[in-house]
Amino acid sequence: MDFSLPIIVSAPPQISGDPLARLVMRLSAFERLGQEEISALRSIVTVDVVEAHENLHKTAGPYVTVLLSGLACQYKMLSGNRRQILGLIVPGDVSHYGFLTGDAAPAQITSLAISQVGRISIADFTELCQRYPRIMRAIIRGMATAAAISKERLVTLGQRTSVERMSHLMCEMNYRLDVVGLVGPGNTFEFHITQAELADTLGLSTVHVNRTLQVLRRDGLIAMRQGKVSVDNLPGLIGAARFDPYYLLQSTMITPPTVG
Amino acid sequence: MDFSLPIIVSAPPQISGDPLARLVMRLSAFERLGQEEISALRSIVTVDVVEAHENLHKTAGPYVTVLLSGLACQYKMLSGNRRQILGLIVPGDVSHYGFLTGDAAPAQITSLAISQVGRISIADFTELCQRYPRIMRAIIRGMATAAAISKERLVTLGQRTSVERMSHLMCEMNYRLDVVGLVGPGNTFEFHITQAELADTLGLSTVHVNRTLQVLRRDGLIAMRQGKVSVDNLPGLIGAARFDPYYLLQSTMITPPTVG
DNA sequence: CGAAGTCTTGACTAGACTCAAGTTGGGTGG
DNA sequence: CCACCCAACTTGAGTCTAGTCAAGACTTCG
User: Is residue A6 classed as helix, strand or coil in its secondary structure?
Assistant: First the structure.
């Protein structure tokens, strides 16, 4: 475990600037939000810092939680030291819906890097959604996107080769991080995940992840070192992954039922 | 558990007896329902028959649909004639939530065997849930169970060997079909799925599915022929699968938010 | 400087895939 | 009623992707 106290953090943009910026960008990708809505949202979010490799929800309770910076994942342990990472959570993603999804057995969620987590009480969240239907619609669109990502992950684990798995994941990350403004010039982004964690995500061994990354590097598609990914040939990467971004584009406008 | 409700079920239970029996059993597993609730449910369901290997939702529209008999699956196609079956749908399962899940890009759903499908208009469904909170809670518990099954499938595809995949699936089917009264004496149940379809479900090749079934057969765990499975050694099967039914037991009582 | 975690490499193994050739079984039509 | 047909199932042989084991190199940090 890492017990360092990262007071001043320069390079990683995580702990600087406006903590809610990513969430606002994410929601704005679905619905155009006004200043009043954004202010209302800001006023009900409490921000906590979570160190790397800690449970994201130390304080259980009736809250909706959102990842604001860093990286997290949901996972399941198996007998024999095996682990499957069910999904990666990036800034702007809702990490826990409280009771809203009726998930009786919430999977474990841990941070992979130092992160900021936003917390909203269920009461405040409900009121926000009732008062600002655009925010509610954006949240619902976010849920739909998460479900689509989860389905695509089944395809990855069931059908794709190691090169396809890796490049598909990188394409997805590139897209998801771009939406929240975390892809820099030259298609570079922070991705603080170890090769062992990538292995647990992709259903591969650590050694094979290493070799797969070497192949992609050798082919000039991506390079990854020290938690930084640079996509050197995006069309090539998309081709290697047979990546079809359709599943990420929740283009349908969903009309929620008029409650009451 | 009380399995004694159903009518007389002879060889093909599919198209005989009360079509809604499985749905009622499924909901009753979560919440004890009264006669009034069951009658109200019956009065708003339209039943259609769907042949094997047909799209389950020929008539799109604002409906919640439920599988009443038979077998169905949700799937995704890939380039190169590959297919991943995302999940199996058994009698009593909701096969489509309409807009309720905000699923903008609904995956394709097809029947695997001749089936009966129940259709409920969104308006009727909403009113039913508002009038009978126990039904609403049961539906929510069902959604939670479906989500848990989907997560477990990620573990299967990411981590388990072929023998574990197959035996885990069989354990799950045994459990899910038992809940709706479709497991007969000696742990036998109808499972009208081809080995090629099993392959697409488990992320294996058809040939390997065949050989895996032979192993399980040789070890006296299960036998499968002509769409009928008999579990000959359930503890052994559970052991081979390292099956932990915890994920199927939505034991937590979920209190939905008081709307309005 | 030492320690721990991470990454890299090599050698070998094994589980699963592909291809190809049968076999079985149920359904259909003559 | 039988012959045929097609889909599903089975088997064998050979290949290959990915896993395992083990050792060593690189980083980071105390």
Answer: coil
* Chain A touched by B242 (CB under 8 Å): yes
Residue B76 forms beta bridges with which residues? B84
Backbone angles phi, psi at B47, to 5 degrees: -105, 130
Question: Token pair 């106290």 is at which residue?
Answer: A5
Q: DSSP label at B143?
A: H
- CA separation (Å) from A57 to A64, A95, A96, A107? 10, 9, 9, 11
Q: Please tell me the distance from the alpha carbon of residue B159 to that of residue B241, in angstroms, as a whole number.
A: 12
Angle at the Cα of A200 from the Cα atoms of A198 and A206, rounded to 5 degrees: 65
Kindly list the protein residues whose beta carbon lies within 7 Å of any strand D atom: A 4, 161-163, 203-205, 207-208, 226; B 194-196, 206-207, 210-211, 213-214, 225
Contact between residue B143 and residue B76 where contact means Cβ atoms under 8 Å apart: no
Name B110's bridge partners. B55, B73
Comparing A9-18, A142-151, A225-234, B128-137, the range with the smallest average pLDDT is: A9-18
Please give the distance of CA B243 from its chain centroid, rounded to a whole number: 18
CB-based contacts of B162: which residues, under 8 Å, 6+ apart? Answer: B202, B204, B208, B209, B212
Write the pLDDT tens digit of every residue in A131-179.
999 999 999 899 889 999 999 999 999 999 999 999 999 999 999 999 9
Residue at token pair 């992609």: A216
Find tokens 């790397």 and name the residue: A52
Distance from CA of A119 to the nearest CA of B (A): 18
To the nearest whole Å, the CA of A195 is away from the closest chain B CA by 16
> What strands lie across the sheet with A83-89, from one edge to the other?
A83-89, A72-77, A108-111
In order of A64, B17, B74, B117, B146, the CA distances from B20 in angstroms are 37, 9, 22, 10, 20
Closest CA to A1 of A74, A75, A53, A70: A53
What pLDDT does B80 receive?
A: 84
SS3 B16: coil
Taking the C-alpha atoms of residue A86 and residue B156, their distance in angstroms, rounded to an integer, is: 11
Residue B19 is which amino acid? Answer: P
In angstroms, the Cα distances linking B142 to A192, B165, B189 are 36, 23, 22
Torsion of CA A226, A231, A237, A243, to 10 degrees: 90
CA proximity to B113, closest of B193, B10, B180, B169? B193
Query: Considering the entire predicted model, what is its pTM?
Result: 0.89
CA–CA separation, B133 and A189 (whole Å): 47
Put simply, whether A161 touches B (Cβ < 8 Å) is no
Provide the pLDDT for residue B15: 52
User: Which residue shows structure tokens 């039922």?
Assistant: A257
